[in-house]
Amino acid sequence: MSDSPAWKEDFPIAWTDDHFVTRREFTKSLVLVSCASFVANASVATLEAFQEAPKVVFPAVRVATAGELPVGGSRVFHYPGPNEVCLLVRIGSERYVAYSQKCTHLGCPVHYQAEVRKLYCPCHEGFFNVDDGRVLAGPPPRPLAQIRLEKRGEELWAIGKTG
To answer: pTM for this one?
Structure first.
């Protein structure tokens, strides 16, 4: 039996090779790799910032006729696809607005409350301004997505979406 510990027999170290990687050299290589990674990420972010976003083309969809809703009335429609529910509100004799019916907090359906002229999310007591869709109260983090409307004769058409 030898006088050296058992681990030295299992993990022999050649002390002559110990000087090849010092702490300073290891730290230098770690800093260089970190800097290279930062430069690579910054260049990718810069390239993405200067690329143009693809232009989204929205279809024109007939939503309603102009006299179909009473002032203060609302109705649901689908735009731009069949799975996206929107809300059309007549807020004046010649003024109509439309928004995505999905609340920006957790996606609950938003309803129009004509007596207070607000859009209401019953899930967490969120309120939105009916004129522009901005948040008035509650937890929603952003305004509702607005649907652009166009009047063609006596028909109302959804022609785009913002937000």
So the answer is: 0.66
d(CA 11, CA 24): 24
On whether both 83 and 145 belong to a single domain, the answer is yes
Rg over CA atoms, the chain: 31
The kind and range of the H/E element at 87 are strand 85-90
Do 107 and 38 fall into the same domain? no
Per residue in 21-31, pLDDT (tens digit) is 778 888 999 99
What is the phi/psi pair of residue 93, to 5°? Answer: -60, -35
Hunting for tokens 């939105």 — which residue is that? Answer: 128
SS3 13: coil
Our count of domains for the chain comes to 2
